[in-house]
Design brief:
Strand order of the largest sheet: 11-7-2-3-4-17
CATH architecture of one domain: 2-Layer Sandwich
Radius of gyration: 20 Å
CATH superfamily of one domain: ATPase, nucleotide binding domain
Helix content: 25-40%
Length: 352
């Protein structure tokens, strides 16, 4: 289910703060054109810590986006992340595909810290199952069944068919690979910063080699502004975007935001330290940021200074064609990083 890639699908990123929808059309030569796009805010109580607490609010947002964008396809792809998701690369004795299919559940039980009956399980081989080779690498993904069911359910309730459930970190990688050339000599950290969770996917030698989700994101910035200036959630969000609120200026907000950006850098540093201690791949050479939180004023600069490596915002439409008469380029570029997951989902296919 997680690796399904031949009908096109609508990419639906159900985040804690917003629901994002993207529909692409595949053209000859592997190129894509943008057909429809939409962003709808969610009430903070709709999704808490990655769990859907009020499904009706999410269903309403999906239906509103469907009407606003005019998407016709009934097939939707979505993705999940957080503590309910386990991604592991395991090494197994080389075996034939049918043999692997029979034994994967038992193997998964040795590596997954959940009851195997409580998860949806998928896997893909990263190396050829050549009998001449002693071992093979297998990427294992397990997601709490309850979480998958919740996300699938809101799509079904909105009148659409949930045909693909992916993982945020892999959707980001799909969007990156669609728009950028992979450098086999660089270790690139794809960092997707959402409201509640930040996904880190390190790509080395053109392959994903390390994944981690950390419970730190845009909410920490908003809550700090609320506490510091006694603001409502909406007022804090406005100040976070760099707009003045009452007597508080963008400069006032920046002092608080920079403190939280430094804390974000500390959390990312812990992940990089763990990667360095458990991998022989070498240090991270570049940071590519996405997600709504990545648009926080000065965050990019704080991270660039902290890690001393090139740091940029991911543009998931860099190689996607679109009609300027249909989409305002300036607006599209201003929100592009927050649509990376949805774009990565939109290039998935049904049934292959």
């Amino acid at each position: 289910m997680f690796f399904n890639r031949s009908k096109g699908v609508v990419g639906l990123d159900i985040g804690s703060a917003t629901v994002k929808m993207v529909e692409l059309k595949e053209k000859k030569g592997g190129q894509y054109s943008l057909q429809r796009i939409g962003v709808e805010p969610l009430s903070p109580e709709a999704i808490v810590d990655g769990s859907i607490m009020d499904s009706s609010l999410v269903v309403d947002a999906i239906q509103k986006l469907t009407e606003q964008t005019g998407v016709k396809s009934p097939n939707f792809a979505t993705s999940v992340s957080g503590h309910s998701v386990i991604i592991k690369k395991i090494e197994l004795p080389a075996m034939e595909p049918d043999e692997l299919a029979e034994s994967i559940q038992w193997e998964a039980e040795q590596h997954i810290p959940f009851d195997i009956n409580d998860v949806r399980l998928d896997y893909v081989t990263l190396s050829d199952g050549d009998p001449a080779m002693e071992n093979m690498d297998v990427l294992l993904v397990a997601v709490k069944r309850e979480k998958v069911n919740d996300y699938v359910s809101v799509i079904s309730q909105s009148g659409k068919s949930p045909v693909v459930v992916d993982v945020d970190a892999f959707a980001i990688q799909n969007a990156y690979e669609l728009n950028y050339d992979l450098d086999p000599l660089k270790n690139v950290a794809l960092i997707n910063m959402g409201a509640g969770v930040t996904n880190i996917n390190i790509v080395a030698r053109g392959q994903s080699v390390f994944w981690r989700d950390i419970s730190f994101g845009g909410n920490q910035f908003t809550e700090s502004l609320q506490r510091e200036f006694n603001l409502s959630f909406d007022q804090a969000e406005t100040l976070k975007r760099g707009d003045a609120v009452g007597s508080y200026t963008a400069a006032d907000g920046r002092k608080v935001l920079d403190q939280i950006s430094a804390e974000m850098a500390n959390e990312i540093q812990k992940t990089f330290d763990f990667f360095a201690a458990t991998s022989s791949e070498g240090p991270v050479d570049e940071l590519v940021l996405s997600g709504g939180c990545a648009l926080t004023p000065n965050l990019q600069e704080v991270l660039r200074e902290r890690f001393g490596v090139p740091t940029e915002l991911l543009n998931p439409f860099r190689r996607v064609m679109f009609k300027e008469s249909d989409f305002n380029r300036e607006w599209l570029e201003s929100i592009a990083p927050m649509l990376a997951v949805a774009v990565g989902l939109a290039i998935r296919r049904v049934g292959d």
